[in-house]
Design a protein that fits this description.
By secondary structure, the protein is mostly beta strands. It has a domain at 87-306: Neuraminidase (6 Propeller). It contains four helices and 27 strands. Strands 1-2-20-19-18-17 form a six-stranded mixed β-sheet, with helices on one face. Strands 3, 21, 22, 23, 24 and 25 form a six-stranded mixed β-sheet that branches. The chain has a four-stranded antiparallel β-sheet with strand order 5-6-7-8, with no helix packed on it. A hairpin with a 3-residue loop joins strand 21 and strand 22 (295-306). Helix 2 packs antiparallel against helix 3. This is 6-bladed beta-propeller. InterPro entries: 6-blade_b-propeller_TolB-like (IPR011042). Pfam families: DUF5128.
């Protein structure tokens, strides 16, 4: 990808957009008024039939406080079953129309609930035997095809169950003759098309970076690595599955470079660069980005700090940014939960599979609701809702889930 060429075009387009901004403010539709006070921070660069959105980081200066209702259709509050075997932690969740699947921890099996929070069963068990698992990365709930897919770390296969918790045939991801395993990886199983798409970190000697296979393990298409990463688990790969595209991006923790979010083009078996950030001059900071139906969001790290005497370090001074897909405007952002009194919408940056989901301890939720009730500007209907929920929470409750289906582009644009 000719980054310099893209950036020259993007700069020209951003400049033109900013010059026209004042003319367009008075004619903006109701849906776009929320962005009126923000500058244009990105440009769409079209080349060879593809469109790349380039964000100019120097333009990302203003801040915006967005309501959660701008992004999701409604907020469903689910109290999980209180049975001892149903207890969960504040961990990863995915949902379908009628089910909730929770990945509790390394020592507790996956737990399946119905959408009202009733505990149904454990899925598999923790261990090293047939059909058992220890460390699991990505997982998928496919209600339509009666399947649950688990991808262990350093996987060579997907472990699959039906929704009754019965072990199904494993799906091989690596040929038996191959002498490598998948490091951190992502996947999407498309039951309608009978295919699985896999993307993995391009560590040295990995022959493939992304491929499509059938449910028996036969590869249908593949791409070689476009870059090479140091074999280190500080690096990461992201796939959010919030749109119809198979999206993914890398975080190379050791190299100062601009990262790109890609779509995989099934028809042409190629990668389509979709979003990137241009940093003008100097050191390129560690950063990552995600795609949502109506926007791109991400984080740029201010600095690294050493945390121990063994080389450990952590990122500091995170700056969270957002770019609206339609207006190309953006800035630094926070999201408040206007459904429940206006507190922070925690876990907003973790939306997956088209849903906002927060898995929260009852004591934490109750405290947040009580804080919201102390404000004086709550609408009467919101105050009543928050008060009723806060009063119903008991100390020994299981966790609560806050679930909202994400709006699509035509819902609020």
């Amino acid at each position: 990808m000719r980054t310099h060429f893209f950036w020259v075009l993007a700069t020209l387009i951003i400049t033109a957009c900013n010059n026209k901004q004042k003319e367009n403010d008075n004619t903006a539709s109701d849906d776009s008024k929320i962005w009126n006070e923000l500058p244009t921070v990105a440009a769409e660069v079209k080349t060879n039939g593809t469109t790349l959105m380039v964000c100019d980081w120097t333009a990302v200066k203003d801040s915006i406080h967005l309501p959660l209702s701008y992004f999701i259709e409604d907020l469903e509050i689910v109290k999980l079953d209180n049975k001892d075997e149903a207890l969960v932690r504040n961990s990863s969740v995915t949902v379908s129309d009628n089910y909730i699947l929770i990945h509790c921890s390394q020592n507790i099996p996956f737990k399946l609930f119905d959408r009202k929070g009733k505990f149904l069963r454990n899925i598999g068990s923790v261990g090293n035997g047939p059909g058992e698992y220890t460390q699991v990365g990505p997982f998928q709930l496919d209600e339509k095809h009666d399947r649950i897919y688990l991808m262990p770390w350093n996987a060579t296969k997907l472990i699959t169950y039906n929704l009754n918790g019965e072990l199904q045939k494993n799906i091989p991801l690596i040929d038996e003759a191959e002498k490598w395993m998948l490091p951190k990886s992502v996947f999407y199983a498309d039951g309608d098309k009978g295919r699985i798409t896999v993307a993995t970190l391009p560590w040295k000697n990995n022959p493939r970076m992304i491929w499509v296979q059938d449910l028996e393990g036969n590869r249908l298409a593949e791409l070689s690595p476009i870059t090479e990463m140091k074999p280190d688990y500080s690096n990461d790969i992201y796939h959010n599955n919030n749109t119809e595209a198979f999206d993914f991006s890398f975080l190379d923790f050791h190299i100062e470079k601009a990262d790109t979010l890609y779509h995989y083009d099934y028809a042409q078996n190629k990668l389509q660069p979709t979003f990137t950030i241009h940093f003008s001059g100097g050191k390129i900071p560690i950063h990552w980005q995600y795609e949502y139906p109506t926007c791109f969001i991400g984080t740029v790290v201010g600095k690294m700090e050493q945390t121990d005497n063994h080389g450990g370090s952590e990122t500091r001074e995170h700056r969270n940014f957002i770019v609206d897909k339609k207006t190309l405007k953006g800035g630094l952002y926070k999201v408040h939960n206007d459904f429940l009194g206006g507190g922070d919408a925690f876990w907003f940056a973790s939306c997956r599979n088209g849903y906002y989901i927060r898995n929260v301890d009852p004591g934490v939720l109750k405290k947040e609701l009580e804080t919201a009730l102390k404000t004086t500007n709550l609408l009467p209907e919101i105050r009543e809702k928050v008060n009723t929920l806060a009063s119903s929470i008991q100390e020994n409750d299981n966790n609560y889930l806050l679930i909202g289906r994400m709006k699509q582009m035509n819902d609020n644009h």
